[in-house]
Amino acid sequence: MRSIDLALIIGLGVLACPGLADVVINEMEMNPRDNTTMWVELYNTDDMPADVSGWTVTITDGSWLGPRTIPTGTTISGHGYLVMHGERTWPHLESGFAVLYDSDGNKVDETPSRSDLLGNDLTWGRYPDGRDTENSGDWGYMMATMGNPNTLGRQG
CA 16, CA 24: separation in Å to the nearest integer? Predict the structure, then answer.
């Protein structure tokens, strides 16, 4: 096989593999209003779709771990969002952190531990979306924007 043919095959394989995108945890609700479910929002920072089939999101709050596995066939569009909800029966202590694992069990992203004592519509989120400098300053306490771009102002 000529080297140009091999390069073309490899290049097409990379384009056809949407799982190579950069997905991060973008926002998390640790203490929702009216004791509804906790949730974690994922964000694809890449232009290409990301296949997140079989990935797992865990929410650690106190001494318990609330895992959620993403169903087969799930993709996040380029610069898109995916929200994973917990169960209403999951107890929470108003603080914790979330971890995202790929389908092979490799850690993809982890949030810092955050507290949310108010039980309101405020969440912890990255601003701007997808900001990942490995610094806790990437995160701010803001109005919930579940499935939408994070903003620092009030939502109407």
Answer: 21
What is the CATH number that goes with domain 21-143? 2.60.40.1260
Burial class of 38 by CB neighbour count within 10 A (0 to 12, 13 to 18, 19+): buried
Model pLDDT for residues 25-81, shown as the tens digit of each residue: 999 988 887 767 888 999 999 999 999 999 999 988 776 778 899 999 999 999 999
For the chain, domain boundaries: 21-143
Reference 61, options 101, 34, 88, 30; nearest CA is 30
Secondary structure of residue 34 in the 3-state scheme: helix
Question: Do the Cβ atoms of 81 and 49 come closer than 8 Å?
Answer: no
Instruction: Look up residue 102 and give its two tokens.
Output: 């790929």
